[in-house]
Design brief:
By secondary structure, the protein is α+β, with helices and mostly antiparallel strands. The protein has two domains: 3-219, 4-Layer Sandwich (Phosphatase 2c, domain 1), CATH 3.60.40.10; 223-390, no CATH class. Helix content is 34%, strand content 28%. It contains eleven helices and 18 strands. The strands form three sheets. Strands 14-15-16-13-12-17-18 form a seven-stranded mixed β-sheet, with helices on both faces. Strands 2-3-4-5-9-8 form a six-stranded antiparallel β-sheet. The chain has a five-stranded antiparallel β-sheet with strand order 1-11-10-6-7. Strand 6 (114-117) and strand 7 form a beta hairpin. Helix 1 (44-63) runs antiparallel to helix 2 and helix 8 (306-318) runs parallel beside helix 11.
């Protein structure tokens, strides 16, 4: 089990602006995490262009192992000059975490990182130095499990200026708010939402500046392994099931034939969990066409195949986090929840063609495989690490 950085962010546009002058770039790999928050000079279109270019360049170069000097020189050579101020300028904050353990923070005219460890605000040892004539702050530190880290643009420090806070919310007060929210046990989604709502309220619902927050938490990775479809060669049945059983994390089977195969190999009873409509309680609605689930010892979820995968795919297209999921306990929703909660997803895909499916025979490919490709594509856009093994 690896250690990783969970991340969520929200941007508030300056009042009456269609585009946000802040930009966020998140890049996740099995061995690294990069978060970039850039604040373009001014607001609106110009600021958005400056910040998006800065975030993209910084993320790509730091991810590739570029130095601070290289990044600063590239930005100075690349950013378009503002015709009014005669400046090519965007601030940035970059956090790189290697293998979920060693962190490198780079700040250029940005508020410092807020680090909460064991419910306490931790002061980071920032080093100041000049790079290409610009002052840059850097810190190297080790992260620990359950560390909460927050990056903010200066729209947060200015919130409430001249109102509740005479000089603005300020970094220290934002850090105290983060500390209080973390102590309640919030995840990164709720923490981000709470900070964003507070910031908006301090501005009287009309932000005086673009305001962005990135919330991060260091935690162990969550894994799930899904076996769907029998192997083309029946001699591989035992191998397919053994791969599922040996996998770390949650274990899921999608497919009636696959479940029967697993039950036979494991020598366990497969019990269908289906309640007739006339016996269901009022609080247990079932979606129209929702397939039943089953139970098999040692397996966390057993569902029908193509329909359930298709339903989970449709659900994932309409939600961003587990908090957005419907409360229905149907198979598609349960599968979608496992996929949303997971960081590492292993798909064991049987290549047998169902001889009863004429369309599959014509295509030479199962409908299951078509859904799997769409699912993998969607999951990767959510920064999931997905591996596929064809059996």
């Amino acid at each position: 089990m690896r250690q990783l950085v969970e991340c969520n962010w929200i941007s508030l546009n300056k009042a009456d602006e269609e585009l946000c002058g802040d930009s966020v770039m998140i890049r996740t790999k099995p061995d690294s995490f990069v978060a970039v928050l850039s604040d373009g000079l001014g607001s609106g279109v110009k600021a958005s262009i400056l910040s998006s270019l800065t975030a993209e360049i910084a993320a790509r170069m730091f991810e590739a192992g570029g130095t601070v000097e290289d990044v600063m020189q590239t930005l100075l050579d690349t950013l378009p000059e503002c015709s009014v101020r005669k400046l090519a300028y965007a601030t940035f904050a970059v956090l790189i975490v290697y293998s979920g353990q060693d962190a490198h923070l780079v700040l250029f005219d940005s508020p410092p990182l807020i680090l909460i460890r064991n419910n306490e605000i931790v002061s980071l040892p920032l080093e100041e130095h000049k790079v290409k004539g610009r002052t840059v702050m850097e810190a190297h530190f080790a992260v620990q499990e359950n560390d909460h880290m927050v990056l903010i643009s200066d729209g947060y420090t200015h919130a409430g200026l001249g109102g509740i806070y005479r000089l603005g919310w300020g970094w220290k007060n934002v850090a105290l708010a983060v500390q209080r929210f973390v102590q309640t046990g919030m995840d990164t989604v709720k923490l981000t939402e709470s900070l964003s709502k507070t910031c908006l309220k301090l501005y009287g619902n009309r932000p005086g500046d673009d305001s962005t927050v990135i919330s991060m938490k260091v935690r162990p990775s969550v894994s799930v392994c899904i076996l769907t479809g029998p192997p083309a060669n029946k001699d591989m049945d035992d191998f397919a099931v053994s791969r599922l059983v040996a996998a770390s994390g949650a274990k899921i089977i999608c497919g009636g034939s696959t479940a029967q195969m697993a039950a036979r190999v494991l020598k366990e009873n497969l019990e269908v969990e289906w309640v007739p409509p006339w016996k269901r309680k009022g609080a247990e609605p079932k979606k129209k066409g929702s397939p039943p689930t089953a139970s098999l010892k040692g397996i966390d979820l057993v569902t029908e195949g193509i329909l359930t995968i298709g339903q989970a795919l449709e659900i994932l297209r309409t939600v961003k986090t587990i908090h957005d999921l419907p409360h229905d306990p149907d198979a598609g929703t349960r599968l979608a929840r496992y996929l949303l909660e997971a960081d590492d997803i292993q798909l064991l895909v049987g290549t047998a063609i169902n001889q009863n499916q004429v369309a599959d025979l014509i295509r030479g490919e199962s409908m299951r495989m078509i859904y799997i490709r769409e699912l993998v594509s969607l999951l990767k856009t959510r920064n999931k690490i997905v591996t596929i093994e064809m059996i």
